[in-house]
């Protein structure tokens, strides 16, 4: 029988890796493969008592980070920036760490703490229209216009790249809200992944 634990401040029970069984254990192994980490991040464990939901979270995450339509560094930038806009420091820290692992500059990572608009991000002219587009996913997706898409396309982004960028921002809007609603985002100051930077 699977044993759940209660992490202080988190509103849902979590299944520890050593206690996972059946489908949950299988998904935990897939999560470690997809993330390249030796442990299952707590964000995934939020849905560990319901493998059906855990599978959905893993499918979304794997769909974004398992593909090569956009470079990994850019997807991590979009993930960290979206999390910043959505007020989820827990996810900002996590994906700033990944951003650094995939070649993000110190200047770019520092901007995650100080920037309040896409225009303040130290990115090149081609990337800026894409970041402006994904910013609107969090600040008012209903305000996105054909002109926003056309501006990104004119900068050289393909339809497939723009779709993946918007999907990534949308996925992290979901993840940010799940992390915060369940209390994970406020239960610890930094995720286990973000703490890897100290090692």
From TrEMBL:
GO terms for molecular function: peroxiredoxin activity. The keyword Ribonucleoprotein does not apply. InterPro entries: AhpD-like, AhpD_core, CMD-like. Residues 51-112 form the Carboxymuconolactone decarboxylase-like domain. Keywords: Oxidoreductase, Peroxidase. SUPFAM superfamilies: AhpD-like. The keyword Cell membrane does not apply. It comes from the Bacteria. NCBIfam families: ahpD_dom. PANTHER family: CARBOXYMUCONOLACTONE DECARBOXYLASE-LIKE DOMAIN-CONTAINING PROTEIN (PTHR35446:SF2), SI:CH211-175M2.5 (PTHR35446). This is Putative peroxidase-related enzyme.
């Amino acid at each position: 029988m699977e044993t759940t634990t209660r992490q202080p401040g988190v509103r849902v029970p979590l299944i520890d890796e050593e206690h996972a069984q059946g489908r949950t254990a299988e998904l935990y192994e897939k999560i470690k493969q997809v993330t390249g980490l030796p442990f299952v991040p707590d964000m995934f464990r939020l849905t560990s008592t319901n493998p059906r939901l855990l599978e959905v979270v893993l499918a979304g995450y794997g769909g974004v980070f398992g593909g090569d339509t956009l470079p990994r560094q850019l997807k991590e930038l979009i993930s960290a920036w979206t999390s910043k806009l959505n007020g989820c420091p827990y996810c900002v820290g996590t994906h700033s760490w990944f951003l650094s692992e995939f070649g993000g500059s110190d200047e770019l990572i520092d901007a995650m703490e100080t920037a309040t608009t896409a225009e303040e991000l130290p990115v090149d002219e081609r990337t800026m229209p894409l970041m402006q587009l994904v910013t609107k996913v969090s600040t008012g997706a209903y305000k996105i216009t054909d002109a926003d898409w056309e501006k990104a396309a004119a900068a050289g982004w393909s339809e497939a790249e723009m779709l993946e960028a918007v999907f990534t921002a949308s996925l992290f809007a979901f993840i940010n809200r799940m992390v915060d609603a369940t209390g994970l985002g406020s239960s610890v100051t930094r995720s286990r992944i973000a703490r890897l930077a100290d090692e």
